[in-house]
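Project outcomes to date are best conveyed with an example. Our students and postdoctoral researchers have been running inverse folding experiments weekly, and each run begins with a structure described purely in tokens. The record below, which covers 144 residues, was selected by the lab manager from last quarter's runs and is presented without edits.
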């Protein structure tokens, strides 16, 4: 995933985060998107126009379509995170220099992470924090 947020002269062109977490294979793409949205909220970028480029090899369903089914806990979390954003757009990317660069980096890190760039993810903890904030608070889940 590549995240781009540009406003005025100052901009965050991209952010990378490498996580490892035990997630069911059919939920990994959605959980990766949740982690990306959490990162954007932590960086306080949720009020600005933001593009999230995602790898269509790994995330086959459009994130916009993800909000339709709310029975899944990851989908509910994703929908709750979306509420924090004013202008968010998901852009599918099947190829290109950024996607290829990230694929190469992930391949390299999966073989040998000497730089310790991969961190442990804990989506359950993030979900609990947001749930404890309450849906009626009206505030974005900024304290994740």
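After processing, the design step wrote out the following sequence:
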């Amino acid at each position: 995933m590549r995240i781009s947020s540009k406003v005025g002269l100052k901009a965050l062109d991209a952010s990378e985060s490498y996580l490892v977490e035990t997630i069911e294979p059919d939920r990994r793409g959605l959980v990766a998107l949740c982690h990306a949205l959490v990162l954007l909220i932590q960086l306080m970028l949720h009020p600005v126009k933001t593009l999230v480029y995602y790898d269509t090899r790994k995330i086959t369903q459009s994130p916009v379509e993800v909000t339709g089914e709310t029975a899944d806990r990851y989908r509910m979390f994703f929908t709750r995170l979306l509420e924090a954003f004013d202008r968010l757009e998901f852009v599918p990317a099947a190829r290109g220099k950024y996607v290829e660069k990230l694929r190469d980096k992930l391949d390299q890190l999966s073989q040998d992470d000497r730089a310790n760039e991969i961190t442990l993810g804990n989506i359950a903890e993030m979900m609990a924090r947001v749930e404890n904030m309450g849906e009626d608070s009206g505030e974005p889940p900024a304290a994740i």
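The radius of gyration is 15 Å. The first strand starts at residue 2 and ends at 7. The training component of this project remains on track.
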